[in-house]
Amino acid sequence: MSRLRIATATGVHAVGTILPQLVGLAVLDATDYGHFSAIYLTYALGVSVVSSTVGDAWIVTARTGGELASWRDYATALGWVAAVCGVIVALVSVLTGLGTGVVLVAGGGAALMLYYDGARFHQGHRDRWGRVLTGDVMVVVGFALGWGAGHLADQHGLVSLLLAWTVAAAGGILGVVRPFVGTPARARRWMVHHQRAVRTLVADATMMNIGSIGTPYLLLVPMNLHQFGLYRAVSNVSAPARLVLSPLRPVIAGMTRTRLHSVPLVGAVLAAAGFFGTAAALALVWIELVPLPLGVISQIGPYAVPAGLYVAGNVIGEFFYMVVRFHTGRAALWSGRVVETLLAVVGPVLGWIVGGLSGAVWGYALATTAFGVVWMWIGLRGTRGR
């Protein structure tokens, strides 16, 4: 029963995670999707910050001889870190030119979703998967209710999407925990007690964030919001593939050396990459030709080939990154991250300089495919003979 709950919760959580991105692709025009992407990227940075300063720091400190902090201490640190990240999301929203009401919803929604993310991690580690599943279901239900409420209030597009995201986060929190936030002094004590783990984890996460989050921010400067929306839409075409890959994390973690090096496994990963990449490219062409009354996704048909290439490379990279993370040493993981970061920065930026938006998209696709192959090589080499 516990395994079924874990598997179900993982699947429902994956759906709740990609819902905002998929709905945004379907209903927002390129400019509004540019606004949403800037907001969501900042939220993604917040996820990394929360993980490094609260969730993972909680586990690492306990495993290195420290005391496993109580829920109230954990929740206090989580609440204040999430609130600070929410303020940063609001500031980014202001810089992209959004109005006061939308800024408040964006910042509040991000803070609530970050609190939910951290609370879910806590309950999962405590093996309270019934509560985790309840929270995950509440996120999906809350998103649907928030989306409907937005339309009833005659709020459409970006505003309705952000309202749905906020209601989803609030529902998830109420489903997974009894919320609590203590004083700032209590949060400071948390940081002092966990400072060694926090420093290590922040340094570790920074390498990944430079490429995955820093590069889009860098490109947001020369691009206008319309171009940025198109650029980010291409990357989010991989959402269905990520939905399939996410539940495989525990499976990959438990694989044996023989299984990792089997021809059927490698062949299956490459076949899946080819399938998802081809399906993504054909879907974009079809949406453009019909045409369907959709949002920004109907405008990226001209980038169908690099989008398909990106999706294929992403499938290979995500799978074998998890192999490296779970089955090799720290040196192999860091070498892969260095290569990935360099490619993730150089590819899109050089592409933009040479060929504008089209060059950036192609640079991103080629870089993703290249570091997908690198992760595969490191994964197979690093687990050989074990």
UniProtKB/TrEMBL annotation:
Keywords: Membrane, Transmembrane, Transmembrane helix
Organism: Georgenia soli
Residues passing through the membrane, by range: 7-28, 40-62, 74-92, 98-117, 129-150, 162-181, 265-287, 307-326, 338-355, 361-380
Protein name in UniProt: O-antigen/teichoic acid export membrane protein
